[in-house]
Write a structure and sequence with these properties.
The protein has 310 residues and is of the alpha+beta class. It folds into 2 domains: 3-83 and 96-172, NADH Oxidase, CATH 3.40.109; 191-256 and 263-307, no CATH class. It is built from 12 helices and 8 strands. α1 runs antiparallel to α4 (103-122). GO terms for molecular function: 4 iron, 4 sulfur cluster binding; cobalamin binding; epoxyqueuosine reductase activity; metal ion binding. This is Epoxyqueuosine reductase.
């Protein structure tokens, strides 16, 4: 067995031991196919007010500009599918990924541990860990690494577990054995496109970010446009509609990460509790949650918007 093959096996074994659901590896190089698509997407204005997506265009397409000397992109998936869907019991809904502790912290810690373990076993490795926090085109790399295919809702789909997982990357200067992309299994299905109430998927594999409920409830800091009133289906933080209707999510299985479990306070919030939420309650329920991104004022704006949409 070559050192490269041994290192690859070690990485995949260590990732599994840390609880990652899958691990795939791609060669670090320029994303030639994605460049024109990204440029067109930005020119259409699909980023809305997310101007940060216009920055670092070159680094988004070439990870070697983020990590000089990078040879490999290791893509890791971490399941967050809950054992109970709170949207079935609550009149006001938040995306499943935000039920528990903020994934940035949970997964970043695991990535740091993985990188340290690799350094102890292999020797000096230069690299960086990323969890949705840098100009990394994570779904493109995940697809190249054979961990799934990009679906018509632009999310990565995996045959064994659907799409309710977080993606994370280690970009390192180590030559490894690379995985191959798999085929697209969406077929003629358009369930995600048909189900989106704000028509944010205008064509297969293209999402107009400026029309997405997640954009309106999390990213947009201004007032939510009146023309989407009555179309939110009571989502007040994020949205899972295009994932909930995806046939591949029949294969989703509940995660085993205690830090992703919803607190009793969150599970017990009534509709009136949501509507009358105070700073004290907000800090108690969401003290380590991704929901803190909206701040109390943003959450109150979203609640008011769906409340007056009836």
């Amino acid at each position: 067995m070559s050192p490269q093959t041994a290192h690859t096996a070690l990485i995949k074994s260590a990732a599994a031991n840390l609880g990652f659901s899958f691990c795939g590896i791609a060669k670090a190089e320029f994303l030639e196919d994605e460049a024109p698509r990204l440029e067109e997407w930005l020119q259409r204005g699909y980023q809305g007010k997310m101007s940060y997506l216009e920055n670092y265009f070159d680094k988004r397409l070439d990870p070697r500009l983020l990590v000089p000397g990078a040879k490999s992109i290791i893509t890791l998936g971490y399941n967050y599918y809950p054992s109970a869907d709170l949207s079935q019991t609550s009149n006001l809904k938040i995306a499943k990924y935000a039920y528990g502790e903020d994934y940035h912290f949970v997964i970043k810690d695991k990535l740091k541990t993985l990188l340290e373990e690799l350094r102890l076993s292999i020797g000096e490795i230069d690299g960086r860990a990323f969890v949705d926090s840098a100009p990394v085109m994570e779904r493109a790399w995940a697809q190249r690494a054979g961990t799934g295919w990009i679906g018509k809702n632009s999310l990565l789909l995996n045959k064994q577990m659907g799409s309710f997982f977080f993606l994370a990357e280690l970009i390192i200067d180590l030559e490894l054995d690379y995985d191959s992309p798999i085929k697209d299994y969406c077929g003629t299905c358009t369930a995600c496109m048909d189900a989106c109430p704000t028509e944010a998927i205008p064509e297969p594999y293209v999402v107009d970010g400026s029309k997405c409920i997640s954009y309106f409830t999390i990213e947009l800091k201004d007032a939510i446009p009146e023309e989407v009133k009555g179309k939110f289906d009571n989502w007040i933080f994020g949205c899972d509609i295009c994932q909930d209707v995806c046939p591949w999510n029949r294969f989703s299985k509940a995660h085993s990460e205690k830090k992703f479990e919803p607190s009793d306070e969150l599970k017990n919030l009534s509709k009136s509790d949501w509507k009358e939420i105070t700073e004290e309650v907000f800090q108690l329920v969401f003290r380590r949650s991704a929901v803190k991104r909206t701040k109390l004022e943003g959450l109150q704006r979203n609640i008011e918007f769906v409340k007056t949409s009836k």
